[in-house]
Prior knowledge:
alpha+beta, single chain, 17% helix, Transcription factor interactor and regulator Znf-B family, globular, three-stranded antiparallel sheet, 3 strands, 12% strand, 2 helices
Amino acid sequence: MVEDEQKWPPWLKPLLRESFFVQCKLHADLHKSECNMYCLDCVNGALCSVCLHLHEDHRVIQVLVCSFW
């Protein structure tokens, strides 16, 4: 089991469990507060564009919606 854990980056499972495209709890009253980003360094929840200033030197990815239908 330990070998399996080392196969994947530590941020992958938390990222896959996260809910995206919801209002940011900290910035719900501001424009562009939809959580569609994730910090791979902090691994502590989805981020909105207003939260990004707290993660300037971090690896942040943007989550996109893909539709195959």
